[in-house]
Write a structure and sequence with these properties.
about 400 residues; mainly alpha; Growth Hormone, Chain: A; 16 helices; about 80% helix
Length: about 400
Amino acid sequence: MERKDIAGPRPLRTFAALAYPNYRLWFVGQMTSLFGTWMQTTAQGYLVYELTHSEAYLGYVGFASGVATWAFTLYGGAVADRMPRRNLLVVTQTFAMLLAFVLSLLTFLRIVAPWHIVVLAFFLGVVNAFDAPARQSFVLEMVDRPVLTNAIALNSMMFNTATAIGPMVGGLTYWLFGPAWCFAINGLSFLAVIAALLAMRLAPWTPPARRGSTFGEIREGFRAVVAERRILAIICLMASISLFGMSFATLVPAWAVQILHGDSRINGFLQSARGIGALGSALWIASIAHRRRKGRTITLASFLFPVMLFLFSLTRVLPLSLLAILGVGAANIMVNNLANALVQTLTPDAVRGRVMSIYMLAFFGFMPVGALLAGSIATVIGVPTTIVIGASGTLLCALAVALLVPSVRRLD
């Protein structure tokens, strides 16, 4: 893989990873797929709420996916270190495509039931448990290490470009044509990323030397995390954000209906506003990826995120809700991007897949638990108060990391 120089004018630095042909293929294919993913995510949440009128059931869907994450992510990380990651990604993307088509068919036939969505969410969680560690550790097969932070930021930028536009399109598509078309479009969009993966020209894959059992290799990944206190602190920070802070995302459909008295379009607008904030933040991080003081930035962002959640919980009209959730998205992506980049920078190559599986377990594994708790609590005390409780938990954990592991702030 030819090394590229990231020096130069800011526009060139912002998109430095796109100088790599394999990353360009990934960027285009993944961007297309993510539009479909966000259309399905938006439509699925609103469909569940439309079928059940239950905040708790929104949590059940998220929890079903989380059970699979807890069960298989660590094994997925070991697999990602044992086989070509491109091959693994092709398999996971193919299965995700098939699940989207199944949901689309059930909805077209008008036989879809809430339990169908829960079961399919579980199987998609299994797919993601293998996909996420491979996806995160695959970045260094497409770009050189000096461009890693930039590539991660661009990954986030394309994710949040889709987040900014996909939910709005999904909400309008749901309103005009029904949810089945959102799911069908998502299924078709996976063809783009599968084609991009197959078109890449990668260095030959060298099978790793077998070191023992799968359990032993997973344990080695945990040892690597515990040995580097800064990695452990960052992973704990992400776990707290997923458990307490990200639960608000589960409640957005209920917020659109109960607080703003809207419909699927308002739900889509809220999700898109969150994505617009995240997109702007991702672009900013991409432009400063060559700079130092990333530790200080992630610390400040970890406090900004719960503050924006507090502000969102106070809004009662659409313009203010859109503005506040935009800030939530911006702060959240600052933490996510920098946490990912710092963990990968601190991790030895030999255990990258396993360490990233632990990172993704903290990120994705606690999120469904938070969703289940938030959905259940919201049915008793209401959506705004539930968001305040989540923001409070996130703020306390950010304070604990800042005080107990100050070396995180000094990371470059």
